[in-house]
């Protein structure tokens, strides 16, 4: 029998090794989210129930190629393709959404964003009506992938997702909730991103319960562009593999890998990018679990912190006039700008390490953060642009 070791015994050993009384100050790690991360977890205060998916297995989504039609089940379409049968189709183009030929054996989902992200602050109500008239399973996309790629924190992304949701429900009623699909981009902070997907489920369900409903969000997750480098495609591939893994473990209903060679994309690099999903799904089988992160004290704790902070920010957005109104007065743009510049400064200082960019870099700094960002615009910016 092993002798039971108390927490105090472990702390004493660590104190001696680190030569300090205050081990938690040394072991604590600052992060841009303002989330408390402990050096270890032995419990969680309020264990969560399983956070379910809509789909039984996460869909592995590929760009459409005629050569892959026979072997791939889910496609991202920008152009109309006729005679597809038994497929899951994610419509990624407004014009295509208007004119696509529907087949009875296919399932259709719209990834067309109905919000403008500039100071017009618009919700395109006519587009919403047109999309709702389509025979799609999920007609209305709430896109927060742009915000992740623009440098928004996870808390900001989740709060914006809820703020967009309430804008839609106030105009089109609660019936629209089961027509929504969330499009998110998954970044490189592995456990944080797992918790982000789970927190979105928790928040959307809580939001629906405010109206005596019990809705589960449909989540389409794609790999981020923010941490990718045009000069370092091989590391892009590694990063996007981890991002896909985080999305599947977090419980996304569909995943899509952006081309790791985004400036030199071709059919081969697109195929390799898609096959990352195949390897993860068929070697690790992580796409079939309903909530693989459940029971991890660390992930549970992160999930609840993100949910609580995001809900409070959402309430603040509503108190200040709502998402569209804050876009019109530039508040949302400014908040994301300030966060993005802070993150960029952390990259410049080496507090965030990106191999091949600011760790073992190939190039010197070529741009300042001020040159890369605008306080009046939400735009996708890659962190590596500073060194390219």
From TrEMBL:
Residues 139-381 form the Methylmalonyl-CoA mutase alpha/beta chain catalytic domain. It comes from the Bacteria. This is Methylmalonyl-CoA mutase family protein. Gene3D superfamilies: Methylmalonyl-CoA mutase.
């Amino acid at each position: 029998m092993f002798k039971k070791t108390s927490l105090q015994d472990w702390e004493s050993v660590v104190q001696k090794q680190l030569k300090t009384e205050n081990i938690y100050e040394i072991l604590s790690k600052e992060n841009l989210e303002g989330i408390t991360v402990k050096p270890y977890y032995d419990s969680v205060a309020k264990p969560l129930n399983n956070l379910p998916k809509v789909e039984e297995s996460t869909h592995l989504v590929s760009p459409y190629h005629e050569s892959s039609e026979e072997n791939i089940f889910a496609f991202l379409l920008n152009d109309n393709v006729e005679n597809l049968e038994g497929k899951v189709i994610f419509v990624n183009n407004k014009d295509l959404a208007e004119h696509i030929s529907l087949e009875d054996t296919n399932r259709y989902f719209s990834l067309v964003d109905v919000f403008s992200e500039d100071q017009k602050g618009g919700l395109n109500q006519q587009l919403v009506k047109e999309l709702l008239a389509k025979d799609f399973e999920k007609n209305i996309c709430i896109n927060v992938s742009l915000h992740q790629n623009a440098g928004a924190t996870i808390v900001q992304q989740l709060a914006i997702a809820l703020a967009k949701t309430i804008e839609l429900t106030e105009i089109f009623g609660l019936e629209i909730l089961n027509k929504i699909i969330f499009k998110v981009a998954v970044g490189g902070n592995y456990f944080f991103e797992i918790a982000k997907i789970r927190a979105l489920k928790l928040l959307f369900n809580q939001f629906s319960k405010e109206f005596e409903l019990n809705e589960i969000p449909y989540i389409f997750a794609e790999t981020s562009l923010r941490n990718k480098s045009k000069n370092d495609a091989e590391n892009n591939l590694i990063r996007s593999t981890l991002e896909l893994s985080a999305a599947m473990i977090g419980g996304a209903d569909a995943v899509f890998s952006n081309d790791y060679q985004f400036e030199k994309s071709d059919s081969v690099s697109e195929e390799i990018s898609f096959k990352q999903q195949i390897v993860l799904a068929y070697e690790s089988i992580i796409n079939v679990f309903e909530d693989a992160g459940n029971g991890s004290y660390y992930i549970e704790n992160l999930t609840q912190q993100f949910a609580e902070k995001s809900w409070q920010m959402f309430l603040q957005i509503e108190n200040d006039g709502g998402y569209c109104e804050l876009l019109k007065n530039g508040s949302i743009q400014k908040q994301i700008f300030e966060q993005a510049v802070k993150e960029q400064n952390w990259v410049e200082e080496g507090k965030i390490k990106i191999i091949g960019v600011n760790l073992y870099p190939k190039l010197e700094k070529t741009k300042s953060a001020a040159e890369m960002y605008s306080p009046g615009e939400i735009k996708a910016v890659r962190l590596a642009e500073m060194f390219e």
